[in-house]
Amino acid sequence: MLLAIDVGNTNTVLGLFDGESLHQSWRIKTDARDTADELHVMYRGLLAQSPDFSGIALCSTVPSTLREMRSMLNRYYSDIETVIVEPGTRTGVPVLTDNPKEVGADRIVNTLATHHLFGGPAIVVDFGTSTNLDVVSDKGEFLGGALAPGIEISIDALAARAAQLRKVELVRPRSVIGKNTVEALQSGALYGFAGQVDGLVDRIEEELGHVQAVVATGGLAPLVVEESRTITHHEPDLTLIGLRLVFERNTAS
Protein backbone atom coordinates (compact mmCIF):
# COMPACT_ATOMS: atom_id res chain seq x y z
CA MET A 1 0.00 0.00 0.00
CA LEU A 2 1.16 3.52 -0.82
CA LEU A 3 0.10 6.68 1.01
CA ALA A 4 0.02 9.69 -1.35
CA ILE A 5 -0.20 13.15 0.25
CA ASP A 6 -0.94 16.33 -1.71
CA VAL A 7 -0.56 19.42 0.49
CA GLY A 8 -2.28 22.42 -1.08
CA ASN A 9 -2.70 25.97 0.15
CA THR A 10 -6.29 25.38 1.27
CA ASN A 11 -6.73 21.61 1.54
CA THR A 12 -4.60 18.51 1.94
CA VAL A 13 -5.67 15.35 0.12
CA LEU A 14 -4.48 11.92 1.18
CA GLY A 15 -4.96 8.76 -0.83
CA LEU A 16 -4.17 5.13 -0.03
CA PHE A 17 -3.28 3.04 -3.09
CA ASP A 18 -3.38 -0.71 -3.40
CA GLY A 19 -1.31 -1.14 -6.54
CA GLU A 20 -2.92 1.11 -9.15
CA SER A 21 -6.27 1.22 -7.36
CA LEU A 22 -7.14 4.07 -5.00
CA HIS A 23 -8.37 2.24 -1.90
CA GLN A 24 -9.46 5.26 0.14
CA SER A 25 -8.99 9.03 0.22
CA TRP A 26 -9.45 11.92 2.64
CA ARG A 27 -9.62 15.72 2.29
CA ILE A 28 -8.67 17.92 5.25
CA LYS A 29 -7.86 21.59 5.66
CA THR A 30 -4.25 22.75 5.45
CA ASP A 31 -3.05 24.78 8.41
CA ALA A 32 0.44 26.18 7.91
CA ARG A 33 0.78 26.49 11.70
CA ASP A 34 0.49 22.75 12.38
CA THR A 35 3.59 21.20 13.93
CA ALA A 36 5.04 17.81 13.05
CA ASP A 37 3.49 16.29 16.18
CA GLU A 38 0.05 17.75 15.39
CA LEU A 39 0.25 16.43 11.85
CA HIS A 40 1.15 12.98 13.13
CA VAL A 41 -1.81 12.90 15.53
CA MET A 42 -4.20 13.94 12.75
CA TYR A 43 -2.86 11.46 10.19
CA ARG A 44 -2.74 8.63 12.71
CA GLY A 45 -6.43 9.23 13.46
CA LEU A 46 -7.38 9.24 9.78
CA LEU A 47 -5.40 6.07 9.03
CA ALA A 48 -6.28 4.14 12.19
CA GLN A 49 -8.78 1.84 10.46
CA SER A 50 -6.85 1.53 7.19
CA PRO A 51 -4.39 -1.14 6.06
CA ASP A 52 -0.69 -0.61 6.76
CA PHE A 53 1.28 1.15 4.04
CA SER A 54 4.87 0.55 2.96
CA GLY A 55 5.52 3.75 1.00
CA ILE A 56 4.78 7.47 1.11
CA ALA A 57 4.71 9.96 -1.79
CA LEU A 58 4.41 13.65 -0.92
CA CYS A 59 4.14 16.99 -2.68
CA SER A 60 3.47 20.36 -1.07
CA THR A 61 2.92 23.94 -2.21
CA VAL A 62 3.20 25.24 1.38
CA PRO A 63 6.86 25.60 2.47
CA SER A 64 6.15 25.75 6.21
CA THR A 65 3.99 22.64 6.07
CA LEU A 66 6.56 20.83 3.95
CA ARG A 67 9.17 21.54 6.60
CA GLU A 68 6.96 20.08 9.34
CA MET A 69 6.01 17.14 7.13
CA ARG A 70 9.69 16.29 6.69
CA SER A 71 10.12 16.40 10.45
CA MET A 72 7.05 14.19 10.98
CA LEU A 73 8.21 11.64 8.43
CA ASN A 74 11.71 11.48 9.89
CA ARG A 75 10.40 11.11 13.44
CA TYR A 76 7.46 8.75 13.02
CA TYR A 77 7.83 7.06 9.63
CA SER A 78 11.60 6.74 9.20
CA ASP A 79 11.29 3.03 8.37
CA ILE A 80 8.93 3.69 5.43
CA GLU A 81 10.25 4.43 1.95
CA THR A 82 9.38 8.04 1.13
CA VAL A 83 9.54 10.12 -2.03
CA ILE A 84 9.07 13.90 -1.82
CA VAL A 85 8.49 15.72 -5.12
CA GLU A 86 10.96 18.59 -5.31
CA PRO A 87 13.75 19.80 -7.63
CA GLY A 88 15.95 16.80 -8.35
CA THR A 89 13.22 14.20 -7.96
CA ARG A 90 12.87 11.98 -11.03
CA THR A 91 9.44 12.70 -12.49
CA GLY A 92 10.08 12.09 -16.18
CA VAL A 93 8.57 15.52 -16.92
CA PRO A 94 10.86 18.02 -18.69
CA VAL A 95 9.94 21.52 -17.48
CA LEU A 96 10.29 23.94 -20.38
CA THR A 97 9.88 27.24 -18.51
CA ASP A 98 12.23 30.13 -17.79
CA ASN A 99 12.81 28.96 -14.21
CA PRO A 100 11.80 25.32 -13.71
CA LYS A 101 12.49 25.46 -9.96
CA GLU A 102 9.63 27.91 -9.39
CA VAL A 103 6.99 25.58 -10.86
CA GLY A 104 4.86 24.01 -8.13
CA ALA A 105 5.35 20.31 -7.52
CA ASP A 106 1.62 19.68 -7.91
CA ARG A 107 1.69 21.11 -11.45
CA ILE A 108 4.52 18.74 -12.42
CA VAL A 109 2.72 15.77 -10.87
CA ASN A 110 -0.52 16.69 -12.67
CA THR A 111 1.37 16.89 -15.96
CA LEU A 112 2.75 13.39 -15.46
CA ALA A 113 -0.65 11.93 -14.56
CA THR A 114 -2.43 13.67 -17.44
CA HIS A 115 0.02 12.44 -20.05
CA HIS A 116 -0.12 8.93 -18.54
CA LEU A 117 -3.94 8.82 -18.63
CA PHE A 118 -4.84 10.89 -21.68
CA GLY A 119 -1.72 11.48 -23.76
CA GLY A 120 -1.07 14.89 -25.24
CA PRO A 121 -1.12 17.67 -26.11
CA ALA A 122 -3.39 18.36 -23.16
CA ILE A 123 -4.42 21.06 -20.71
CA VAL A 124 -4.87 20.52 -16.99
CA VAL A 125 -7.37 22.82 -15.27
CA ASP A 126 -6.81 22.62 -11.52
CA PHE A 127 -9.55 24.36 -9.52
CA GLY A 128 -7.97 25.09 -6.16
CA THR A 129 -6.90 28.16 -4.22
CA SER A 130 -5.85 29.45 -7.62
CA THR A 131 -7.18 28.22 -10.95
CA ASN A 132 -4.20 26.74 -12.79
CA LEU A 133 -4.17 25.92 -16.48
CA ASP A 134 -1.10 23.81 -17.27
CA VAL A 135 -0.13 22.85 -20.79
CA VAL A 136 1.24 19.37 -21.52
CA SER A 137 3.03 18.65 -24.80
CA ASP A 138 2.53 15.50 -26.86
CA LYS A 139 5.84 14.27 -25.36
CA GLY A 140 4.69 14.84 -21.78
CA GLU A 141 6.63 18.07 -21.28
CA PHE A 142 5.40 20.87 -19.04
CA LEU A 143 5.21 23.88 -21.34
CA GLY A 144 3.85 26.49 -18.92
CA GLY A 145 0.35 27.81 -18.48
CA ALA A 146 -1.87 30.41 -16.89
CA LEU A 147 -2.74 31.21 -13.26
CA ALA A 148 -5.91 33.00 -12.13
CA PRO A 149 -7.49 33.73 -8.74
CA GLY A 150 -9.48 30.75 -7.50
CA ILE A 151 -13.26 30.69 -7.14
CA GLU A 152 -13.41 30.73 -3.35
CA ILE A 153 -10.84 33.47 -2.79
CA SER A 154 -12.54 35.60 -5.43
CA ILE A 155 -15.89 35.25 -3.65
CA ASP A 156 -14.21 35.96 -0.29
CA ALA A 157 -12.53 39.10 -1.67
CA LEU A 158 -15.79 40.37 -3.16
CA ALA A 159 -17.67 39.84 0.11
CA ALA A 160 -14.90 41.57 2.07
CA ARG A 161 -14.67 44.63 -0.20
CA ALA A 162 -18.35 45.21 -1.08
CA ALA A 163 -20.57 46.28 1.82
CA GLN A 164 -23.84 44.88 0.45
CA LEU A 165 -22.44 41.60 -0.90
CA ARG A 166 -21.79 38.41 1.03
CA LYS A 167 -20.53 34.88 0.68
CA VAL A 168 -22.99 32.54 -0.98
CA GLU A 169 -23.29 28.82 -1.56
CA LEU A 170 -21.68 27.97 -4.89
CA VAL A 171 -24.50 26.17 -6.68
CA ARG A 172 -26.22 26.66 -10.04
CA PRO A 173 -28.77 29.51 -9.88
CA ARG A 174 -32.23 29.33 -11.49
CA SER A 175 -31.02 31.36 -14.44
CA VAL A 176 -28.05 33.35 -15.65
CA ILE A 177 -30.03 36.53 -14.98
CA GLY A 178 -30.13 36.53 -11.18
CA LYS A 179 -33.35 37.82 -9.66
CA ASN A 180 -31.72 38.57 -6.31
CA THR A 181 -28.28 39.23 -4.91
CA VAL A 182 -27.56 35.60 -4.05
CA GLU A 183 -28.50 34.33 -7.52
CA ALA A 184 -26.57 37.15 -9.18
CA LEU A 185 -23.44 36.22 -7.23
CA GLN A 186 -23.90 32.53 -8.01
CA SER A 187 -24.35 33.29 -11.70
CA GLY A 188 -21.28 35.49 -11.85
CA ALA A 189 -19.13 32.94 -10.03
CA LEU A 190 -20.27 29.77 -11.78
CA TYR A 191 -20.74 30.95 -15.35
CA GLY A 192 -18.03 33.58 -15.06
CA PHE A 193 -15.34 31.10 -14.11
CA ALA A 194 -16.56 28.58 -16.70
CA GLY A 195 -16.27 31.33 -19.32
CA GLN A 196 -12.82 32.26 -18.05
CA VAL A 197 -11.61 28.69 -18.45
CA ASP A 198 -13.16 28.34 -21.89
CA GLY A 199 -11.60 31.61 -23.03
CA LEU A 200 -8.13 30.62 -21.83
CA VAL A 201 -8.42 27.13 -23.36
CA ASP A 202 -9.43 28.66 -26.69
CA ARG A 203 -6.43 30.98 -26.67
CA ILE A 204 -4.05 28.16 -25.69
CA GLU A 205 -5.39 26.02 -28.53
CA GLU A 206 -4.88 28.88 -30.98
CA GLU A 207 -1.27 29.11 -29.89
CA LEU A 208 -0.56 25.39 -29.48
CA GLY A 209 -2.72 23.78 -32.09
CA HIS A 210 -4.95 20.76 -31.49
CA VAL A 211 -5.41 19.71 -27.86
CA GLN A 212 -6.32 16.09 -27.23
CA ALA A 213 -7.76 16.49 -23.73
CA VAL A 214 -8.74 19.23 -21.27
CA VAL A 215 -8.70 17.63 -17.84
CA ALA A 216 -10.33 19.21 -14.78
CA THR A 217 -9.23 18.41 -11.25
CA GLY A 218 -9.21 20.05 -7.83
CA GLY A 219 -11.79 20.40 -5.09
CA LEU A 220 -13.95 22.97 -6.90
CA ALA A 221 -13.89 21.28 -10.31
CA PRO A 222 -17.37 19.68 -9.99
CA LEU A 223 -18.90 23.16 -9.82
CA VAL A 224 -17.60 24.19 -13.22
CA VAL A 225 -17.20 21.00 -15.28
CA GLU A 226 -20.81 20.79 -16.43
CA GLU A 227 -20.88 24.48 -17.38
CA SER A 228 -17.70 24.45 -19.45
CA ARG A 229 -17.80 23.65 -23.16
CA THR A 230 -14.05 22.95 -23.39
CA ILE A 231 -13.40 20.56 -20.46
CA THR A 232 -13.42 17.00 -21.79
CA HIS A 233 -12.50 14.96 -18.70
CA HIS A 234 -12.88 15.22 -14.93
CA GLU A 235 -10.30 13.35 -12.84
CA PRO A 236 -10.63 14.29 -9.14
CA ASP A 237 -7.67 12.12 -8.12
CA LEU A 238 -5.23 13.38 -10.75
CA THR A 239 -2.56 14.62 -8.32
CA LEU A 240 -2.71 11.45 -6.22
CA ILE A 241 -2.30 9.34 -9.36
CA GLY A 242 0.70 11.46 -10.37
CA LEU A 243 2.25 10.96 -6.94
CA ARG A 244 1.87 7.21 -7.33
CA LEU A 245 3.62 7.37 -10.70
CA VAL A 246 6.48 9.46 -9.28
CA PHE A 247 6.91 7.01 -6.40
CA GLU A 248 7.16 4.13 -8.85
CA ARG A 249 9.81 5.99 -10.86
CA ASN A 250 11.95 6.60 -7.78
CA THR A 251 11.82 3.25 -5.99
CA ALA A 252 13.18 -0.14 -6.84
CA SER A 253 9.85 -1.80 -6.06
UniProtKB/TrEMBL annotation:
Cofactors: K(+)
GO cellular component terms given for this protein: cytoplasm
Example of a GO biological process term: coenzyme A biosynthetic process
Keyword Nucleotide-binding in record: yes
Molecular-function annotations in GO: ATP binding; pantothenate kinase activity
Record keyword Magnesium present: no
Pfam families linked: Pan_kinase
Location of this chain's protein in the cell: Cytoplasm
Main location: cytoplasm
Signal sequence residues: none
Protein keywords: ATP-binding, Coenzyme A biosynthesis, Cytoplasm, Kinase, Nucleotide-binding, Potassium, Transferase
Annotated NCBIfam families: baf, PRK13318.1-3, PRK13321.1
Subunit structure: Homodimer.
Family: Belongs to the type III pantothenate kinase family.
Protein name (database record): Type III pantothenate kinase
